[in-house]
Amino acid sequence: MKKLILILVWINLFLFWFILDLFSKESLVVFLNVGQGSSVLIYNPKLQILYDTGPFGFKIISELNKFLPFYDKTIDLVIISHADKDHFGGTFSILDRFKVRLVIISPYISEESSYLELLNKIKNLKIPIITLGDKDRIETTYEKIFVLNPEIGKFNSDNENSIVLKVYKNSKTFLLTGDIDQKVEKYLIEKYGNFLKSDYLLIPHHGSKYSSSLAFLSLTGNIYSIIQVGKNRYGHPHKETIERLKLLNKKYWRTDLNGTLIVK
Ligand SMILES: [Zn+2]
Predict the structure, then answer these.
(1) Tell me, what DSSP letter sits at residue 204?
(2) DSSP string of 4-23, one letter each residue
(3) How far is ligand 1, taken at its centre, from the CA of residue 179, in Å?
(4) Of the chain's two ends, which shows fewer C-beta atoms within 10 Å, N or C?
(5) Are 164 and 176 in contact (CB under 8 A)?
(6) Spatial separation of the C-alpha atoms in residues 129 and 119, rounded to whole Å
(7) Ligand 1 centroid – CA 199 distance (Å)
(8) Quick one: 31 exposed, middle or buried, by C-beta within 10 A (0-12, 13-18, 19+)?
(9) How far apart are CA 115 and CA 131, in angstroms?
């Protein structure tokens, strides 16, 4: 009997580690449903990168708990696209619950008080903060990430100075755009041309009609365009944006209606 129990315990342990191992071998990009805000998890077995953290701690923590193994309490890199609460608000709770190794922010200096409070908290925790802009690049074993925006001194608002990334991962491309508007889209098209082409597009500014020009949409989001949106008073996503997507026959995914999107 004792022997049988031991064997069963051993099998259980084996299965447990087998499942853990399977999970930790995944390499994913996950467009999280964080309500009215933005957050994208770029996950590989060695490294976890978070592009924006949504508006609230409880939302981002419950989403991360679904995707990060329970034993892994580290987020290696948190990238904050710009100083809007719907993009950085969840970071306070992340700093309480996870070990964050490095924070990347836009070089544009913002006066937003809760953003400055967040930067103070990060400094007090002795987590290094660096700024990245166009021409910078992040390379890991699993992904190549090109920083396309901002160009220092070019534009004068938080939104326009959002960190824009082109991510190469699992033979797919992703364009992450923060809250840029059509003026920045036009400048990016002139600057990068076909390099903006991407399989997946994170639609700028939650589907605002002041973003997502026809020219920009026709170049990007060739498999899916993702609108990260929740209940809001701005009317996001605007019907004009949806009409442009439909006109171009682009498939789109709304996190408020369709939930979280996992791309393997
Ligand atoms: Zn936003």
Answers:
(1) G
(2) HHHHHHHHHHHHHHHHHHHH
(3) 5
(4) N
(5) yes
(6) 8
(7) 22
(8) buried
(9) 15
Write the burial class of residue 85 (CB in 10 Å: 0-12 exposed, 13-18 middle, 19+ buried).
middle
In angstroms, what is the span from residue 231 Cα to ligand 1's centroid?
13
* 8 Å CB contact between 226 and 256: no
pTM (2 d.p.): 0.91
Residue corresponding to tokens 């399977």: 22
**Helix residue ranges, H only, 70-181:** 85-88, 91-97, 113-124
Rounded to an integer, what distance in angstroms lies between the CA atom of residue 37 and that of residue 89?
A: 9
Strand 261-263 versus strand 28-31 pairing type: antiparallel
Q: Which tokens go with 228?
A: 């990260």
Cα-to-centroid distance, 248 and ligand 1 (Å):
24
Q: Cβ contacts of residue 173 below 8 Å, gap of 6+?
A: 166, 167, 197, 198, 199, 200
pLDDT tens by residue, 72-117? 899 999 999 999 999 999 999 999 999 999 999 999 999 899 999 9
Output the CA 49–ligand 1 centroid distance in Å: 19
Of 13-17, 68-72, 103-107, 202-206, least confident by mean pLDDT is 13-17
C-alpha 103/C-alpha 146 separation (Å) is: 17
Residue ranges and CATH numbers for the domains of the chain are 27-258 (3.60.15.10)
Looking only at the bridges linking them, the beta strands covering 40-43 and 28-31 are antiparallel
